[in-house]
Amino acid sequence: MSDTNQLIRYSIITEKNPREIVLLRGNGCKWRRCRFCDYHLDFNLNSQLNYQLNAQVLKKVTGQFQQLEVINSGSFSDLDTDTMKLIKDICVQKHIKYLYFECHWMDRHHILPLKEKLKTSGISLQIKGGVETFDKEYRETVFCKGIDTDRPQELAKYYDQVCLLFGITGQTQNSMENDLKTGLKYFNRVCVNLMTENSTAIKPDKQVLSIFMDTIYPKYSENPKVEILLNNTDFGVGGKNE
């Protein structure tokens, strides 16, 4: 990911779970070891510049669905204090009831305090976690996610929703099916991302992608609790402005 100032940072999602979504910029993912991800390149260590950018993006939020999803290249705790305050203020002003944030496992201790804080303002915080797969050995040897538990019950103490990553060598129909079934059993919603070409060493496996599209996609494409991103910009953010 490069020229991140030119990225599309606001969009509206109208299917399944209608909401507004913004791609904000923070001081960067602190993990930075996921072998499939170059998303962390969208960062700036200057909190003032980040706030200026984020404030311009957040101006577009209308509150029309009473739901707002905020993503950035890391955890919500990597956003500056002024941006966090502005997000809360906008939720109150626009009567947004549900706020979605992402959080890496290493930052999970920030989740419950923020949930309690926002609850006093009538905002329900929903946390998405990039688990990618519930197979711990595969997750840590191939993806290098930095999640030290193999128990979905433990993950569910912090995450309301999970993101899964499919389409990589070594995954099978059974492994992908099991991941989806586990995600739906323990979490409110599941977001499936299909691996797309980027600057990392991990590449999409066309055969695995074909298995997913032929055998799994038809079963889950209409499930209201499963969102499937065939491309990583399908939510409308992250692509470049023309």
Tell me what the structure shows:
The protein is an alpha/beta fold and 242 residues long. It is built from seven helices and eight strands; from the N terminus they run ββαβαβαβααβαβαβ. It has an eight-stranded mixed sheet. The two termini are 15 Å apart. The model has no long low-confidence stretch (mean pLDDT 95). Strand 3 (67-71), helix 2 and strand 4 (98-102) form a beta-alpha-beta unit. It has helices at residues 47-58, 81-93, 111-119, 136-143, 152-155, 173-186, 206-220; strands spanning 10-13, 19-23, 67-71, 98-102, 124-132, 161-166, 189-194, 226-229. The protein has a single domain (4-229), classed as Aldolase class I (TIM Barrel, Alpha-Beta Barrel).
Key features of this structure:
242 residues, alpha/beta, TIM Barrel, eight-stranded mixed sheet, 8 strands, globular
Order of helices and strands: EEHEHEHEHHEHEHE
Extended strand count: 8
CATH class: Alpha Beta
| CATH topology heading | TIM Barrel
Shape: globular
Named at the architecture level, the CATH assignment is Alpha-Beta Barrel
Provide the β-strand percentage band.
15-25%
Count of DSSP-assigned helices: 7
Rg, please? 17 Å
Structural class computed from helices and strand pairing: alpha/beta
Q: How far apart lie the N and C ends?
A: 15 Å
Q: Which consecutive residue ranges, at least 5 long each, have pLDDT under 50?
A: none
Q: Strands of the largest sheet, in order across it?
A: 1-2-3-4-5-6-7-8
- Please estimate the helix content: 25-40%
Q: What is the name of the CATH superfamily?
A: Aldolase class I
Main sheet specs: 8 strands, mixed
Total count of domains: 1
Average of pLDDT: 95
